[in-house]
Amino acid sequence: MSSLFSQEVPISWYLLLSAVLFSLGVIGFLIKRNLITVFMSIELMLNAVNLSFVTFAHEWHAVKGQIFVFFVMMVAAAEAAVGLAIIIAVFRARATLAVDRIDLMKL
Amino acid sequence: MHLILFIVFAGFCLAGAINLLLQSHPINSALSLIVVMTSLAVLYLLLGAEFLAAAQVIVYAGAIMVLFTFVVMLLNAGREERTLGSHAARMVGFPAVAVILGVLATVILKAQGLGVAGLQDGITSTADLSRVLFTELLLPFEVTSVLILIAILGAVALARHGDGERTAGK
User: Looking at this predicted complex, what is its ipTM?
Assistant: First the structure.
């Protein structure tokens, strides 16, 4: 039991978790039919990439990797504010959030 | 201890992400995304990023997700109807996801020289982080504040009720 408590985690497990979370985000982007949940899938992908940044910063003892995550967070906050404002504007114009009905620009 | 914490919170992460995909109501998806982000904060702490763990909880799980739940409630978004999705998504999208995951997993598992993470590893203190941020990276930091300002103005301009031209025409 004490060996389980003192066990260390390989860095590659963190990277695998990050890759799986990113893939789940892409799948959500493809299968979700609601504009807001599609946007949430994008946030999930951003978070997955942040995890791999923090993992590599830990691996190579690089502070700048963590600062990059800080910048990604700030850009994500700005992106969420503007994106949700666009969603509100789309809802006001089309009265729906289903991506199948917001297809004016589709080929 | 590190292993146990990693397994528990990685499990929470994956369960939340899968639940996000399975739920058909946006508010349930938003709540499971909060679970994902909060467990990611614990994983950041395990990797020694104390400032980012706090920022993750405050900015992501706090501010951004409050914005999401506000919009879900404001627009009264109901259950989404399940459709098959576009043809392109089925033909190109899902194979592409499988390929991306396969390539990433292969590269990660074959990579040599990746170390381990344990509880005895040092923590990057907020002082170390801010010393680099406010000396070497001061200009990008200030530019980002301009970006935030522009985003605020853009969000207000986009979400404002009725644009200026329409009211002028009446």
Answer: 0.89
